[in-house]
Specification:
The protein has 273 residues and is α/β, with parallel strands linked by helices. The chain has a single domain (12-198, 225-250), classed as NADP-dependent oxidoreductase domain (TIM Barrel, Alpha-Beta Barrel). The protein has 10 helices and 10 strands. The longest helix is centred in the middle third of the chain and has 15 residues, at 90-104. The two termini are 31 Å apart. Bound molecules: NADP nicotinamide-adenine-dinucleotide phosphate (NAP).
């Protein structure tokens, strides 16, 4: 959907509902307490304008505080949270969203996602998200970890087509069929674990490409995802990582190197968490 966007730090992709989403954000899984507060403040100072959280991460309060203390206008920051598995269902999803807004200290989030599919509960939960959207508590709604059959089922009865599917994508995990399906249905893909949770950064092919461009392996993986038209949400704690990950807009991977990275889909270096 962002095929014709010029890749720059301020660029935003237009979602199927007209809202605009940044191309890079901070993932916050594993960031807690003051570490989370500090990382989010620093990310916002660097220029990140998308923060991804979930009740499961136990950091919505710190993120809300960091946002307020940053002094940045609320409308400039694209805030995402999610309805967790234990809150799937119509009433509980409505309540869960209100609870998240309370913890974040905001009136509205920019994107609200179903965190994980739950058999038999996806459709009712989706109705709740549609309702939250029409009440203005969330601007865009989407899903996460949805496969093609799950999306097919949802699209059959949904009034609102999901704006986003947040899934694991990096050169080592790339489901072509799902990517094609989402693209055909104007569902924007947001790549989680774009850095392979750190597991595959030392793979030989990645290191070779990184050396050739004089960039870090992390920058190569993130740039690959940007050039695929994805939004990326790398998680980082240290200042060095936060800066390095944001600094991916001043170089371009050539087709041949994109192809080499595409070919890594069969390499098994990921460790399940
Ligand atoms: N929807 C879902 O089901 C779902 C599932 C998983 C993740 N997510 C979201 O996606 C975000 C990102 O995914 P993730 O946290 O699984 O993994 P990730 O972003 O692929 O990797 C994070 C790891 O990479 C390290 N790192 C960051 N920048 C680096 C750099 N420049 N060089 C070397 N290492 C670097 C981090 O270390 P430091 O922290 O020490 O910097 C951390 O250990 C999550 O935080 C969460 O917001 C969503």
């Amino acid at each position: 959907m962002n095929d014709d966007i010029e890749l720059s730090p301020d660029a935003r992709v237009e979602l199927n509902d007209g809202n605009r989403m940044p191309l890079i954000g901070l993932g916050t899984w594993g960031l807690r307490g003051e570490t989370c507060y500090r990382a989010v403040r620093e990310a916002l100072d660097i220029g990140y304008r998308l923060i991804d959280t979930a009740p499961l991460y136990h950091n919505e309060e710190e993120i809300g505080r960091a946002l307020r203390d940053s002094g940045i206008d609320r409308d400039e920051v694209f805030l995402t949270t999610k309805v967790g598995t234990s809150d799937m269902g119509y009433e509980s999803a409505i309540r869960a969203c209100q609870d998240s807004l309370g913890r974040l200290g905001v009136d509205q989030v920019d994107l609200y996602l179903i965190h994980w599919p739950s058999e038999g509960k996806n459709l009712d939960t989706w109705k709740a998200l549609e309702q939250l959207r029409s009440r203005g508590l969330v601007r865009s709604i989407g899903v996460s970890n949805f496969t093609v059959p799950m999306l097919d089922e949802l699209l059959f009865s949904a009034r609102v087509v999901p704006a986003v599917n947040q899934i694991e994508i990096n050169p080592f995990v790339y489901d072509r069929e799902l990517v094609r399906f989402c693209s055909n249905n104007r569902i924007h893909l947001e790549a989680y674990s774009p850095l392979t949770r750190g597991n595959c950064l030392q793979e030989k092919e990645v290191l070779q490409i990184a050396n050739a461009y004089e960039r870090s392996p992390a920058q190569i993986l993130l740039r690959w995802a940007l050039q695929k038209g994805l939004t990326v949400i790398p998680k980082a704690t240290s200042s060095a990582h936060l800066r390095e990950n944001y600094n991916i807009f001043d170089f371009e991977l050539y087709f041949g190197d994109m192809d080499k990275l595409d070919a890594l889909n069969t390499v098994n270096c990921l460790i399940d968490v």
